[in-house]
Amino acid sequence: MKNKVIKEQNKNLSKNTAKRVQLMKKIFSKMPKIKVFENTHNYDQMIVQVGIPVLALCEHHECSFEGVVHIAYLPEYWLVGLSKLARVAEYHLNPTVKTIQEKATANILKNLKDCLHPKGLMVVVEARHSCIAYRGVKKPSLTITSAVDGIFAEQGNDAKYEFLSFINRNNK
After folding, report:
1. What global pTM score does this model have?
2. How high is the pLDDT of residue 4?
3. Reduced 3-state DSSP string for the chain
């Protein structure tokens, strides 16, 4: 009798798994609505968000990679709510997305650039890939990618280095 009850419970769990996975994919696959606000105070300093946690699937091996995203922008006409930076990062790097870190980094930058039109924008992603740690070379290491635009890309501009110092300060 006990085995019959356990089998029935397992059957119900399996039946509901597909629904749970479908719901999770639905939640993560919605591009966040990014409402921008006019920069009425003419704020012209860097806005930085560091340490946004992310988890995604590597499209090469279907193994997870986990890390953090750091975003900085220099506003011109528009500002965005800080939660939207994290939501855009999560949209491009979440457990239902098969991607590569390099592509996701570039996509985060493009997505934010298209709605904010900032003077400068930079995205840095730091992640540990389980495919490196558990197969092949078996050396857990940190992979860092960046995407840079506007003032951050200009030679001799200190904005890029100021942002990197914020990241380093956060990692201590």
Report:
1. 0.85
2. 67
3. CHHHHHHHHHHHHHHHHHHHHHHHHHHHHCCCCCCEEECCCCCCCCEEEEEEEEEEEECCCCCEEEEEEEEEEECCCEEECHHHHHHHHHHHCCCCCEECHHHHHHHHHHHHHHHHCCCEEEEEEEEEEHHHHHCCCCCCCEEEEEEEEEHHHCCCCCHHHHHHHHHHHHCC
What architecture is domain 33-170? 2-Layer Sandwich (3.30)
Nearest to 169 by CA among 59, 50, 77, 33: 50
Q: Where are the domains of the chain?
A: 1-30, 33-170
Which tens digit of pLDDT belongs to each residue from 59-97? 888 888 999 999 999 999 999 998 999 999 999 999 888
How large is the greatest C-alpha to C-alpha distance in the chain, in angstroms? 75
Quote the CA–CA distance of 97 and 111 in Å, as a whole number. 16
Residue 172 has pLDDT above 70, yes or no: no
